[in-house]
Specification:
CATH class of chain B: Alpha Beta
Number of strands of chain A: 11
CATH architecture of the largest domain in chain A: 2-Layer Sandwich
Strand content of chain B: 25-35%
Mean pLDDT of chain A: 80
Number of helices of chain A: 25
Oligomer: heterodimer
Structural class of chain A: alpha+beta
CATH topology of chain B: Chemotaxis protein chec
Radius of gyration of chain A: 54 Å
Low-confidence stretches of chain A: 653-679
Largest interface: A-B, 19 and 18 residues
CATH architecture of chain B: 3-Layer(aba) Sandwich
Radius of gyration of chain B: 15 Å
CATH superfamily of the largest domain in chain A: Histidine kinase-like ATPase, C-terminal domain
Order of helices and strands of chain B: HEEEEHHEEEE
Distance between the termini of chain B: 15 Å
Largest sheet of chain A: 6 strands, mixed
Helix content of chain A: 55-70%
Shape of chain B: globular
Number of domains of chain B: 1
Strand order of the largest sheet of chain A: 6-7-8-10-9-11
Number of helices of chain B: 3
Low-confidence stretches of chain B: none
Number of domains of chain A: 4
Largest sheet of chain B: 8 strands, antiparallel
Distance between the termini of chain A: 122 Å
CATH class of the largest domain in chain A: Alpha Beta
Structural class of chain B: alpha+beta
C-alpha cells in the first residue's frame, strides 16, 4: 500500500514517466521543477485570491495568472513537450512575478522571491541562458527602485542586503553548477571510454578461438573468461569452479597433485617462461569431459600475473588442437603407409622375377583357398575355418619371408595375430571380427595385386620370366629358405640338394611338396641345427648340413631330408607339453606320444613367437598335407646325430585334383601316415 | 572401409526387424570377384561418393522379395511384379535413408537414392577398379538369403 502510494507520487512528480536510473539527473531536475510548480501554485493561488479580497486586485490577478500558468505547465509536462520550453515558460512567468512584486508595494516579497531565482534558474535551465537571465534579474533588483538605496528605512535595508545576497547566491550557484557540469561531462567521458573499451574487450573475448581465463592461487576460475573456454571445456558456467577438478576425468589423482605443484611453481615466479613451458604437464593433453566423456586434445599454457591490488592470478590459455592432431596423425599414417609401400616395392624389385611369379601364384592360390573356405564351408565350425585360414596365411608368410618380402610378412604376421585373437576368445566369433578379417584379407590381396603389377612391368623388360625353369626356381627357393632362416637364427648351415627330379616337380604336387619342405627345413634350422658354439663343443663341424633329395620311383615321389643337428629334443618336448598340460606325467618318456604332440596344432617349443617359428603351425601343416596327398611320413631321429625325414607321396595325384579336395576333411590321424623309427 | 559398412548392417537388421518383422542373421562374410556369377533376381544399388567412393548392393532371390511384399501389402504374390518392386524398393529406401543419416553426419559422404534392378542373372558393373567386393550374406525367413555386397575405396589423401 505504502509502495503504491509512493509509486503514484513518484509518477506524479515525474510527469508520468517511471524511475529510470540511467537518466537520474534529468529526472531529479524534473522532480524539482514539478515540486516548484506545485508548491508555487499552492502558495500563490490562495495568496492571489486573498489579495483580490483585500482590494489589491492587480497583484492578486497577476498571482492567479501565474498560478494558472504553473498548473498549465505542470499538466503540459505530461505530454511530450521539451522540458526546456516548459521550464523557460514557467521561469519567465516567475521572473515576471518577481519583477512585478519588486516594482509595486510588495517589494519585500519580491526581494525574497528573487533570491530563489538564480538557484531555480541555474538548476532548471542551461548555464548560459540561466546566467544571462539571472544577471538581468539582478540588474532589475538593483535598479528597479534605485532611489530606495538612499532612503533609510526597512526598504533600504532589504534592498541592500537583498542585492548583496542575490549576488552571493548567484555566484555560489553559478560555481556549483559549473563544477557539477564539469564533473558530469568528465564522468560521461570516462563512462563512454570505458563502455567502448568494454565493448572491444567483450568482442575480443567472445570471438577469440582461444580459451583465456584467470585463476586465483587456489586454481579457482575468476568471472572473466573468454567464451571459447566454455566451448572448449564443454561447460556453461565456469566461474568459481576449481580448474583441477574440471580435469578429474582427464588426469589421474597423482597427475592432479603434480599439477597443483606446477601451479605453485607458476605463482612463485621462481622459473622463467621456457622452464615453465617445459614443466607444464598440460602443454598437450587429452581432455575428457567429466559428464559426456567426450575426448579432445588441448594445449594449455599458464603464467602468473600480479593484479593492481597485489593479488596474484594465474593466466591460462587453452587451445583445442584435436583437429591438428588428427590431421597430423592422418599425415603420419599416410606417410607410414607410403613408406611401407615403397619398402614393399623395393623388396619386390630385389626378388628374382621368376621366383616372384611363383610366389604370387602361390599366394593367389592360398587367398582363393581362404575365400572358398569362408564362402562355402557351411557346415564347418568357425574354429575349423579360422584354423584353415591361419594355415594358409602362415604358408604365404613363410614364402614371403624366404623371398625377403619383410613388409608383406609383417602384414601377414599381424593378420595371423588377429586370427589368433579371435580364435583365443572363448565365444563364437562375432560378425564384426569376421568382417574385419575379410576386409583385412582384401587389403592383403591388394598388396599381392601390387606385386603383380610390378612383376608385369618388370616382365615387360625381361623375357626370362617363364615357367620353364620351375625346378630351378623350386631349388632356389629352398636354398633361400635355409639362408634366411639360418641368418635369422644366427646359425651356419650348408644346404645340399643331392637329387631333384624334374618330372616330380613340374608334374607332381609342386606346391604341396614345397610347403612341406619349407616347414621341415625351417624346423631343421630352427630346432635341429645347433649354434656354431654348441656344435664346436659337441665336436661337430661349426657349419651344420642339410641334405635333400627328391626322386621319382615306382610312381612314388620320395622326399628325403637329412640334417646333422641335435635330433628331436624329447626332453624339451616333454617339458613343454607338461607346461601346456598336454600329457600326463607318466607319459613323459613315451616318445611316440611326444612325437604325436609335435604334430598337433598348438605345440611349439620355441620360446618366443617370431616371424620364423613359434606358432606351432609348422608340423601340423606338414601332417595335413601329407594326409591330403595320401602319403606317408617317417621320421628317424638320433640324439646329437640328426634327423631324417622321409616322405613318400603317390605321383598320380596332380595338382588339380588336390585343389579340389583341399576344402574337405582337414582332420587326419598322424598314426595312419606316420611311421616312427627311433634308433 | 569397415566403418562405412557397419551402419548398413545395423540399419538392415533394424529395418527388417521393425518393418518386416523378421530377423536377419548375418553369416560369414567373404570376398566376391567382380564378375562372379550369382543367382540374385532383384538388387538395390546405393551409390556412395565423397571421402570414399563405391556402392552398396542389397540382393535377394525372388522368394524373399515376394515374402517381404506379402508381409507389407497383406496379400500373396506369385511373381516379381510392380508391387514387389515397389515394396522392396520401399524397404531399401528406408535402409538407405537411415544409413544416410548416420553416415553423412559422421563422414564426408553423400549417398545416392537406391536404384532397383531386377531380372534373372542380372549383372552389376561395380564402380572403381582396385577394390574387391565384400559380400555379407544374411539368412532371412529361416531358409532364404539376402546379400549385402560392398565395394568402397577411400579416396582421401589419394
Amino acid at each position: 500500500m505504502v509502495k503504491e502510494i509512493r509509486n503514484i507520487l513518484l509518477k506524479g512528480l515525474l510527469s508520468g514517466s517511471s524511475v529510470d536510473p540511467l537518466v537520474l539527473d534529468e529526472q531529479i531536475r524534473r522532480i524539482l521543477f514539478n515540486i516548484l510548480l506545485l508548491s508555487g501554485g499552492i502558495v500563490m493561488g490562495p495568496l492571489g485570491v486573498y489579495h483580490i479580497y483585500q482590494g489589491r486586485t492587480v497583484f492578486g490577478v497577476v498571482a492567479i495568472v501565474i498560478t494558472a500558468v504553473f498548473i498549465l505547465v505542470y499538466l503540459l509536462s505530461f505530454f511530450k513537450i521539451p522540458f526546456f520550453i516548459l521550464s523557460l515558460v514557467s521561469l519567465l512567468s516567475f521572473m515576471i512575478l518577481c519583477g512585478f512584486s519588486l516594482h509595486t508595494d510588495f517589494f519585500i516579497i519580491g526581494m525574497l522571491l528573487s533570491l530563489l531565482f538564480p538557484i531555480v534558474l541555474l538548476i532548471e535551465l542551461n548555464t548560459k541562458l540561466g546566467v544571462i537571465l539571472s544577471i538581468l534579474m539582478g540588474c532589475y533588483i538593483v535598479f528597479a527602485r534605485f532611489p530606495s538605496f538612499f532612503t533609510p528605512g526597512l526598504e533600504q535595508d532589504f534592498h541592500i542586503a537583498g542585492s548583496a545576497l542575490y549576488i552571493v547566491i548567484l555566484v555560489l550557484t553559478f560555481f556549483q553548477v559549473v563544477t557539477k557540469n564539469y564533473r558530469d561531462s568528465m564522468i560521461t567521458n570516462i563512462n563512454n571510454r570505458l563502455t567502448a573499451e568494454h565493448e572491444q574487450m567483450t568482442a575480443m573475448k567472445d570471438n577469440l578461438k582461444t580459451g583465456i581465463f584467470l585463476m586465483d592461487t587456489d586454481c579457482i576460475i575468476q568471472p572473466q573468461y573468454s567464451n571459447a573456454l566454455k566451448t572448449i571445456m564443454g561447460l556453461d558456467d565456469l566461474e568459481d569452479s576449481d580448474f583441477i577438478t574440471l580435469l578429474s576425468s582427464s588426469v589421474t589423482e597423482r597427475e592432479r597433485s603434480a599439477l597443483r605443484s606446477f601451479f605453485n611453481m607458476v605463482v612463485r615466479h621462481t622459473h622463467d617462461a621456457s622452464t615453465l613451458e617445459e614443466a607444464n604437464p598440460l602443454s598437450q593433453f587429452t581432455y575428457i569431459h567429466t559428464k559426456t566423456l567426450e575426448a579432445k586434445t588441448l594445449r594449455c599454457s599458464f603464467s602468473a600475473i600480479v593484479g593492481e591490488s597485489g593479488a596474484t592470478f594465474i593466466l591460462g590459455t587453452i587451445d583445442d588442437i584435436s583437429k591438428e592432431i588428427e590431421l597430423e596423425q592422418q599425415l603420419s599414417e599416410e606417410d607410414a603407409k607410403r613408406q611401407s609401400e615403397m619398402n614393399a616395392l623395393f623388396e619386390v624389385i630385389h626378388v628374382d622375377p621368376r621366383v616372384l611369379i611363383d610366389f604370387i601364384e602361390d599366394t593367389e592360390y592360398e587367398f582363393l583357398h581362404i575365400n572358398n573356405t569362408l564362402k562355402n564351408d557351411d557346415k564347418a565350425t568357425s574354429e575349423q575355418i579360422l584354423k584353415e585360414i591361419s594355415r594358409s596365411v602362415h604358408a604365404i608368410k613363410s614364402n614371403a619371408l624366404i623371398l625377403g618380402l619383410n613388409s608383406y610378412s609383417k602384414q601377414l604376421h599381424a593378420y595371423e595375430d588377429e586370427i589368433k585373437k579371435i580364435r583365443d576368445s572363448e565365444t563364437e566369433p562375432e560378425l564384426d571380427g569376421l568382417l574385419h578379417l575379410t576386409f583385412h584379407l582384401e587389403n592383403l590381396m591388394q598388396t599381392n595385386d601390387e606385386f603383380k603389377s610390378v612383376i608385369d612391368k618388370i616382365s615387360a623388360f625381361s623375357e626370362n620370366a617363364t615357367r620353364k625353369e620351375e625346378t630351378k626356381v623350386f631349388a632356389e627357393l629352398l636354398e633361400r629358405t635355409v639362408e634366411r632362416t639360418a641368418e635369422a637364427k644366427n646359425k651356419s648351415v650348408n644346404f645340399t640338394i643331392n637329387a631333384i627330379d624334374d618330372k616330380a616337380i613340374t608334374m607332381g604336387p609342386r606346391r604341396m611338396i614345397k610347403e612341406i619342405l619349407l616347414q621341415l627345413i625351417r624346423n631343421a634350422v630352427t630346432h635341429g641345427i645347433e649354434s656354431p658354439e654348441e656344435r664346436k663343443k659337441a665336436g661337430k663341424d661349426e657349419t651344420g648340413s642339410i641334405i635333400l633329395s627328391i626322386t621319382l620311383n615306382d610312381n612314388n615321389i620320395e622326399v628325403i631330408l637329412d640334417d646333422d643337428g641335435m635330433g628331436i629334443n624329447y626332453a624339451a618336448v616333454a617339458e613343454h607339453a607338461e607346461k601346456l598340460n598336454l600329457i600326463a606325467s607318466n607319459e613323459k618318456t613315451n616318445r611316440s606320444k611326444l612325437l604325436q604332440l609335435l604334430f598337433s596344432d598348438t605345440f611349439s617349443t620355441a620360446k618366443i613367437v617370431d616371424m620364423y617359428a613359434g606358432r606351432g603351425a609348422g608340423l601340423s601343416v606338414v601332417k595335413r598335407i601329407v594326409t591330403e596327398l595320401h602319403g606317408t611320413l617317417k621320421v628317424k631321429t638320433k640324439d646329437r646325430i640328426g634327423v631324417r625325414w622321409t616322405i613318400i607321396i603317390p605321383f598320380e595325384l596332380d595338382t588339380e585334383s588336390i585343389e579340389g579336395s583341399i576344402g574337405g576333411n582337414i582332420e587326419g590321424n598322424i598314426e595312419e601316415s606316420t611311421e616312427v623309427t627311433i634308433q | 572401409m569397415e566403418k562405412y559398412i557397419h551402419p548398413f548392417i545395423t540399419v538392415c537388421e533394424d529395418v527388417f526387424r521393425d518393418f518386416v518383422g523378421t530377423k536377419l542373421t548375418a553369416e560369414r562374410p567373404y570376398i566376391s570377384s567382380r564378375n562372379e556369377e550369382h543367382e540374385w533376381e532383384i538388387s538395390a544399388i546405393i551409390g556412395f561418393t565423397g571421402e570414399a567412393r563405391g556402392a552398396v548392393v542389397i540382393s535377394m532371390k525372388k522368394e524373399p522379395a515376394l515374402k517381404i511384399t506379402d508381409i507389407l501389402t497383406g496379400h500373396a504374390h506369385t511373381d516379381i511384379d510392380n508391387e514387389v518392386i515397389d515394396a522392396t524398393g520401399e524397404i531399401v529406401n528406408i535402409i538407405a535413408g537411415n544409413a544416410k543419416r548416420g553416415l553423412e553426419e559422421t563422414f564426408k559422404l553423400i549417398i545416392s537414392l537406391p536404384t532397383i534392378v531386377r531380372g534373372k542373372n542380372h549383372r552389376i558393373t561395380w564402380p572403381g577398379e582396385s577394390t574387391r567386393i565384400i559380400a555379407i550374406p544374411f539368412k532371412i525367413f529361416e531358409s532364404d538369403s539376402l546379400c549385402l555386397s560392398v565395394a568402397i575405396e577411400s579416396i582421401t589423401g589419394a
